[in-house]
Design brief:
Blueprint (H helix, E strand, L loop, with lengths): L1 H12 L6 H12 L3 H34 L5 E4 L3 E4 L2 E2 H5 L4 H18 L1
Antiparallel strand pairs: 1-2, 2-3
Length: 116
């Protein structure tokens, strides 16, 4: 009977490495039940408030820029050129080679990814 008890405790003590994470997660939930609900809600609310603040700041700054440098509009002229506040982007990019255009496109992609 003693040998049987020793083998039972040896099997009970051994835990597979993949079983540790669910146990630790369950223990964390038991100790901090509110954290699993409130932490994501608070983080999401902070992110939402900061996003709204920066959108408002961007609109105010775009309005000020539009007042000082023209009409503040993006206009497409004859489908070939594009100007923002009177700045012709076609003239700026016309002297760029294929490598520079690819770098510009990568920079625009990265800025859009980071803003997302």
């Amino acid at each position: 009977m003693n040998a049987h008890a020793d083998s039972a405790t040896a099997n009970a003590v051994r835990t597979h490495t993949t079983h540790r994470f669910p146990l630790l997660l369950r223990r964390e939930y038991w100790e901090h039940k509110g954290g699993f609900l409130w932490a994501p809600l608070v983080a999401g609310a902070i992110s939402l408030v900061l996003t709204l603040v920066f959108i408002i700041i961007a609109h105010v700054m775009a309005g000020r820029l539009g007042d000082s440098a023209g009409n503040g509009q993006i206009s497409l002229d004859n489908g070939q050129s594009m100007s923002i506040n009177g700045l012709d982007l076609g003239a700026l990019t016309s002297k760029l080679g294929p490598d520079e255009m690819a770098q510009l496109a990568d920079g625009i992609d990265l800025s859009l990814l980071l803003s997302g």
